[in-house]
Every structure is written in structure tokens, then in C-alpha cells.
Amino acid sequence: MGVALGAGIAVLGALGAGIGIGIATGKATEAVARQPEADGKIRNMLILGCALAEATAIYGFVIALMIMFML
Fold this sequence. Notes:
Mean pLDDT: 90
Shape: elongated
Number of helices: 3
Number of strands: 0
Largest sheet: none
């Protein structure tokens, strides 16, 4: 019971990553709508930010797997 609860809490990092990526994508589309000539720079920053946010979700998933199978 406690192991499943701990793994569930560890996976909550994916919730934060999903919200962060959604906000970043919305702001990037607004920025491109305002300044279409800056499309390349905005896209590069968006990809970098999404990669960093997704890394936190992957870390949470790995920790959840470790909790489930090592305890």
C-alpha cells in the first residue's frame, strides 16, 4: 500500500511537466503571432524549455519505478 502511494506521488512530477509544457506552448504561439520574423529563435527556446520540463517528468517516472520494484 505504501509503495503504491509513494510511486503515485513520485509520478505527480508528470503533472507539473504537462502544465509547464502547455503554458510554454501557448506563450510561444502568442509570441510567434506577435513577431513572425522571430519564429526560429522562439522555436529553439520552446524546444529547449520543453525538453527540460519533460526531463522532470522522466525523473519522476524513474523514481516511481525504483520505488515500486526496489522496495
